[in-house]
Design brief:
The complex is a heterotrimer of chains A (303), B (340) and C (325). In chain A, 73% of the residues lie in helices and 0% in strands. Chain A has 12 helices and no strands. Chain B is an all-alpha fold. In chain B, 42% of the residues are buried. Chain C has 325 residues and is of the alpha/beta class. Chain C has a domain of 172 residues: 3-Layer(aba) Sandwich (Rossmann fold). In chain C, strands 6-7-8-3-9-10-12-11 form an 8-stranded mixed β-sheet, sandwiched between helices. Chain C has a 4-stranded antiparallel β-sheet with strand order 2-1-4-5, with helices on one face. Chain C starts with 5 loop residues before the first strand and ends in a 10-residue tail after the last strand. Classes of the chains: A mainly alpha (303), B mainly alpha (340), C alpha/beta (325). Chains in contact: A-B, A-C, B-C. Chains B and C meet through helix 11 and helix 12 of B and helix 2, helix 4 and helix 7 of C.
């Protein structure tokens, strides 16, 4: 997947346009993986549901937090398709609205981690020397913390909120992208076309921007797709222990915190939010598998 | 000789990392906005009492001195005192650490016994129904929030079927009628050592659900990564050469391919182990398991940060040592490693 | 003539791919006799490697031998169960691969790899095996065999690795050694040494060698007989001197013309116009006809097998009348 620019003169189309062409081919190959396509469709449905939650929810005010004590802990019925929670709020509406924080965490964390980690790794790998050592040591230290624990600790220190949860999870995630980018940069550095660019006087940062980053992007994207599910799970875990979105705002994790106390009387309250998490995470994982199978030439089957 | 060099370099790196970890932990703990002194002396203490408390807790000194003092104490086994309970943290750790480790060990056993063989079989019979089923199983495990699985297991086995206990490490009857001798803190071991069979059965029944819940993610991960590693190895030319030399399936899969795949497999196991230490926190909450996780989460909610610092430090140290161990193991198995 | 060691008749191999069915082998005929040194030569993608792995029954995933026969010492190999093939591989028919860095297991020493293979096919105790291992390493002319036993592949040079691979292949007294591009990845000087070694091994060990290569020079230097492959078919086969100096088939001629020679110094190289047909759409009749300067209408049918001399056969309509019976 490491391809030199179409024309090796600086200023010519370069690695980025080659990348876009590749991605079009990848997309066509991905379309053949039925499982990945189904997953993508489901994810898109969830994303749309998240965006239009306020309109789709049958009981939008309950989704926002208004209680309905007369119907507390009612089982699934025609008025409440998924039942109600401990203060009578419609579960379906809450789950729809709860998709927002969950999906935001997943996408935001991975996006930011990639944005921070990839250039850092590229710089470390390309320039080498003490820059490399310094960046990699910091990376090692961050990687030495159990991710969930670090996220919990930082979240607790910063104060419970959705934003702080996103921030703390991102802080545990960026090192992986740095490592990935660095490894790629190190192997690319030796390639003739990079040497050629250097020979005609292109600056280091320009080389990184034009040649290294596009080539790093592919494995980074594969990793990212697979990571969204895990980031989402971690976000749910943080909410579950009370460090993410706070009640009465709806979030799949914090719904389970309460559901746990009532599972004897209202098991549906515990089942459905978790099922939502499972479904979305699974789709992201399957999509990630599909993307990896398509982008990694080794796994492309002969027949 | 290159290997010895590598080992030394790796150890030095581990030391550096540990220092970095302790500093970061300390810094994070200090970010907590609330005032530990107020918690310590209560809201109505006099100025003098407060000042005395500040000095006692060492909070009047500059940050780096506080850090050094803390690290000095840690090396002497003194993790400080809980702001809430005034008890030495080390005493709490002696009780809670084995509880969590026992749970994690049982989970690891499940992971190794189920995850790795399934991964190998999946790769060997790639695309067969066995492979498809185990891949679906793996993906579900990896996508499931562990605390939700714990809840579901409770729903099914406790509420519906009434087969297993809802939480804790032992039931009250056993605690009263056949109390367990605290030898190691690992109840399975302790009950065996003191031949307390009824307690042993009881402890085991309490371990079943939490360890299944805790192991699920790791099982899924192991299946996926062992499968991937094996598939990659099986495509290598040296495996084709092995087939060409007439070696049998048993030799090729389990003697050759597995060794070549063992390094990524060990990495997975290491990842699983450390993941399970974190995951234990979530599982412990659901099952009321008296371990580090419950200890930590409570400390966070009551802003008892000596505890937060101590637990984070301990777990991070475990993590660092596990990674170190894995790297050294890899260096021993793969003769090419020291060249990197 | 005594019975050949291996007889391949009308071997057809297909692969199922996303793009369709690829016809890798379209009716290969070969004969390998004891102590033979047969060269199998052709361009990339002509099916020579596939022929080699087919003989061993190691066709990659997705591939299927749809018809033909492979007979070894009177036994038909196609259709035999895997357990039977595992007794043939390594012990009767062995293989050496192109890139010795890839075909030697990086996590085991040379000695360990030798031992694993020997233990599989022979009954011997540890010291007997060690002696045999040392002997083998000497036979392949590796210096300091005792030390080599304890080294890992990555500690050896390319040439030494290939010698070690040959030693492993011959460790159980195989009758046929299939060498798939054994020198392609090596330096030129090392190449010559390895080819020399193979020639000598044929005499001293009494092993027949199937030399698969794209390099005509290698064939000219080492083999006594040669078969030329094009698009999954044998187009010409016979003694090396005859085929190379009195090439009959237009493709063989073109191939020889295209090779740089001292005599053609200063002149442009003669390329063969057109491209190799894709395995997805095999042609009826002669696969070379679209590029052949002598193509006739009748070439649309499957070319006949003509004997132009004792043991020299061509598959071409040009010689349909000059058949010697």
């Amino acid at each position: 997947m490491n391809m030199p620019p179409e024309e090796s003169l600086e200023g010519a189309p370069g690695a980025w346009s080659t990348r876009f062409q590749e991605y079009r081919l990848m997309w066509r190959a991905l379309r053949r993986d039925r499982l990945a396509v189904i997953s993508l469709v489901i994810i898109l449905i969830f994303v749309l549901a998240a965006i239009f939650a306020s309109w789709l929810a049958p009981y939008p005010d309950q989704a926002m937090g208004k209680s309905n004590l007369s119907e507390r802990l009612s089982p699934p019925s025609r008025t409440h398709l998924l039942g109600t929670d401990d203060v009578g709020r419609d579960l379906l509406s809450r789950i729809l609205l709860g998709s927002r924080p969950s999906l935001s965490i997943g996408l935001f964390v991975v996006g930011l981690a990639m944005l921070i980690g990839t250039p850092l790794g590229a710089i470390a790998g390309y320039f080498g020397g003490w820059i490399d050592q310094a960046i990699m040591r910091i990376t090692d230290i961050f990687l030495s913390f159990p991710p969930l624990l670090l996220a919990i600790a930082i979240s607790a220190a910063l104060g419970p909120s959705l934003f702080n949860a996103m921030l703390s999870i991102t802080l545990t995630w960026w090192p992986w992208y740095t490592r990935l980018a660095r490894a790629q940069a190190v192997s690319l550095k030796e390639q003739p076309f990079i040497e050629a660019s250097r020979a005609i006087g292109v600056s280091g940062f320009t080389i990184i921007r034009r040649h290294i980053i596009p080539n790093v992007l592919t494995p980074a994207l594969v990793q990212a797709t697979m990571d969204i599910g895990s980031a989402l799970l971690m976000g749910a875990a943080l909410s579950f222990v009370g460090l993410g979105v706070q009640l009465p705002k709806a979030d799949w994790g914090n719904m389970l915190t309460v559901a746990r106390l009532y599972f004897n009387d209202g098991p549906w309250f515990a089942i459905f939010p978790g099922l939502a998490i499972l479904l979305v995470a699974m789709c992201f994982n399957l999509l990630g598998d599909g993307v990896r199978d398509v982008l990694d030439p080794q796994s492309r089957r002969v027949g | 000789m290159a290997r010895v060099e590598y080992i030394i370099r790796r150890l030095l790196l581990a030391v550096l990392v540990l220092v970095g970890v302790s500093i970061i932990t300390f810094v994070i703990a200090r970010l907590v906005p609330s005032d530990p002194v107020a918690l310590y002396v209560g809201p109505r203490a006099k100025i003098e009492t407060r000042e005395a408390a500040r000095v006692k807790l060492g909070l009047d000194r500059p940050l780096y001195q506080q850090y050094l003092r803390y690290m000095g104490e840690v090396f002497h086994g003194d993790f400080g005192i809980s702001v809430r309970s005034r008890r030495p943290i080390i005493d709490d750790l002696k009780v809670f650490l084995p509880a969590t480790m026992e749970l994690v060990f049982v989970s690891m056993i499940i992971t190794v016994l189920i995850g790795i063989p399934l991964g190998v079989v999946s790769a060997a019979w790639k695309d067969s129904w066995v492979d498809q089923l185990s891949r679906i199983f793996a993906v579900i495990n990896v996508s499931m929030p562990v605390f939700w699985l714990a809840l579901l297991l409770q729903l099914l086995f406790v509420r519906q079927l009434g087969l297993l206990p809802i939480g804790s490490r032992v039931s009250r009857e056993i605690a009263i009628l056949a109390p367990i001798d605290h030898i190691t803190g690992f109840y399975l071991v302790d009950t065996l050592l003191s031949r307390n069979w009824s307690a042993f059965r009881d402890v085991l029944s309490h371990l079943v659900l939490p360890s299944i819940a805790l192991s699920s993610y790791a099982v899924g991960l192991s299946i996926r990564m062992t499968r991937a590693a094996m598939i990659e190895v099986l495509q290598q030319k040296y495996i084709t050469a092995a087939w060409a030399a007439g070696l049998t399936g048993r030799t090729v899969y389990f003697k050759l391919a597995l060794k070549n795949a063992i390094v990524p497999t060990l990495m997975v196991l290491g990842l699983s182990f450390v993941w399970q230490i974190s995951g234990a926190m979530l599982v412990e909450i659901i099952f009321l398991w008296p371990g580090l996780g419950t200890y930590l989460v409570n400390a966070i909610l009551t802003i008892d940060f000596p505890i937060v610092v101590s637990v984070t430090l301990i777990v991070a140290v475990f993590y660092v040592f596990t990674n170190l161990f894995l790297d050294l193991l890899q260096a021993m198995i793969d003769p090419r490693v020291s060249l990197q | 003539m005594d019975q050949p060691l291996v007889t391949v008749r009308d071997l057809r191999l297909q692969f199922r791919t996303y793009a369709g069915i690829v016809h890798a082998l379209n009716g290969i005929d070969l004969e390998i006799h004891e102590h033979d040194m047969l060269g199998l030569v052709g361009e990339t993608g002509c099916g020579k490697s596939m022929t080699g792995v087919s003989i061993l029954g190691l066709v990659p995933r997705g591939g299927e031998i749809v018809s033909g026969s492979i007979v070894f010492r009177g036994e038909e190999l196609l259709g035999k169960p895997e357990s039977y093939m595992q007794t043939i591989r390594g012990a009767k028919i062995a293989m050496v691969f192109q890139d010795p860095s890839a075909s030697l297991n990086p996590l085991f020493t040379i000695g360990q790899q030798l031992e694993t293979v020997m233990r599989r096919h022979q009954r011997a105790d540890k010291s007997q095996m060690r002696d045999r291992a040392l002997e083998l390493l000497k036979v392949v002319e590796l210096p300091d065999p005792a030390r080599i036993l304890k080294t890992y592949p990555h500690e050896l040079s390319g040439g030494m690795k290939q010698r070690a691979s040959i030693a492993i292949a011959l460790s159980c007294g195989a009758d046929l050694l299939i060498a798939d591009e054994p020198t392609t990845d090596l330096d030129v000087t090392v190449q010559a040494q390895i080819l020399d070694l193979l020639r000598r091994l044929r005499e001293t060990q009494g092993v027949a060698i199937l030399m698969i290569t794209h390099d005509l020079a290698v064939v000219a230097e080492t083999c006594q007989r040669v078969a030329v492959l094009y698009a999954g078919q044998v187009v010409e086969s016979g003694p090396v001197d005859e085929v190379l100096f009195e090439a009959k088939h237009p493709y063989t001629r073109a191939l020889l013309e295209a090779s740089p020679k001292r005599s053609s110094r200063g002149q442009p190289l003669q390329a063969i116009p057109g491209t190799v047909p894709s395995g997805l759409h095999p042609l009826e009749g002669c696969a070379f006809s679209p590029r052949c300067p002598h193509a006739m209408e009748i070439c649309g049918q499957a070319p006949p097998r003509i004997s132009v001399a004792p043991s020299h056969t061509v598959y071409c309509f040009l010689y349909a009348d000059s058949e010697e019976r």
